[in-house]
Amino acid sequence: MSDVPTGTPQRPSSERPDAADREGADTALHLAPGGLRGLLLVTGFVFVGLAGLGAVLPVLPTTPFLLVAAACFARSSPRFYAWLLSNRLFGPLIRDWRAHRSIPRGAKVWAIGMIAVVGGSSVAFFLTNPWARLAVGATLLALIGWLLWVPTSENVRRAGDAQPGRSGE
User: Fold this and answer.
1) Radius of gyration of the chain (CA)
2) pTM above 0.85, yes or no
3) Among 32, 64, 68, 147, whose Cα sits 20 to 30 Å from the Cα of 100?
4) What is the 3-state secondary structure of 65-121?
5) What are the tens digits of pLDDT across the range 94-107?
6) Mean pLDDT across 24-43
7) What HEC string does 42-65 produce?
């Protein structure tokens, strides 16, 4: 981990962090004050753990937990933020979200499939209250709708490469 940056590049206060993140900047946000920094660091690790569980358990999502962990680390620890971004499995998901506000096709297909199989079987076989079935079913459909609405990373990159005057990534 010797190649992990230890300092935090600071942005001018007039620059909005969310705008820079959409442009794909790889710099961390300003660090939070001391006590909050510790809380964010612990929260970041909790969400990395949940993301790790989500990678092997079909009932937990991986990408949203990673995005929360990255946001926590960006404000608490440049070292762990850089570690998460350079992670072979998790880094590409976070970088795609930061650069394009998109999710890779494979992650979307996997997530929708797991929601349909696990969530659908829960609604069909385990929930007996009709209102609970309706509420859970509506939530699952809303989540699938959101996943379909979010741009697919490969399509966003391809469209960006096709724009005149823009070089490929």
Assistant:
1) 18
2) no
3) 32
4) HHHHHHHHHHHHCHHHHHHHHHCCCCHHHHHHHHHHCCECHHHHHHHHHHHHHHHHH
5) 888 888 888 888 88
6) 75
7) HHHHHHHHHHHHHHHCCCCCCHHH
